[in-house]
Amino acid sequence: MKQELICKKDLDIRFSDVDCLGMVWHGNYIKYIEDGREAFGKKFGLQYWDIHEQGFVTPIVKLNIDYKKSLRLGDNAIIVTKFIDSEAAKIIFEYTILKVPDNIVIATAESVQVFLTNKGDLHLTIPDFFIEWKKNYLSD
In b/e form, how buried is each residue of 16-36, taking b as 16+ CB within 10 angstroms? Predict the structure, then answer.
């Protein structure tokens, strides 16, 4: 059985994140997802610069968010970022934003990234460095 790769990151709900009603503006959830993805990369050696040094960039080509509830100024939350293994040349993550301490689900999301060479050409096969990364982190 493959190991699950999960990273949790605390989120600070700042005054600048909320609208005039004191609720987090919907677009800021995308920033929270980015925070989760960056924390995952740092924890598991898959940061943007790590990928770039291998001759690739990984733009997001798909992002779905399901909003369940709202965060408000003063709330505490975490973003849980989970790597989803794929046979395709893609990086897929699932996210859950939770209000703590009660672990109330605020939003769920999924992102898909593809591999482009640093020159901008789509890479249709899984790059060797990513195969090696998966062997190192997903092995039994």
Answer: ebbeeeebbeeebbeebbebb
Tell me which residue has tokens 């789509």: 122
* Cα torsion angle, 112, 117, 121, 127, sign: negative
CB 76 within 8 A of CB 21: no
Instruction: Tell me whether residue 1 is in a domain.
Output: no
pTM for the structure as a whole? 0.94
Domain around 39: 6-138
pLDDT tens, residue by residue, 39-98: 999 999 999 999 999 999 999 999 999 999 999 999 999 999 999 999 999 999 999 999
> How many domains does the chain fold into?
1
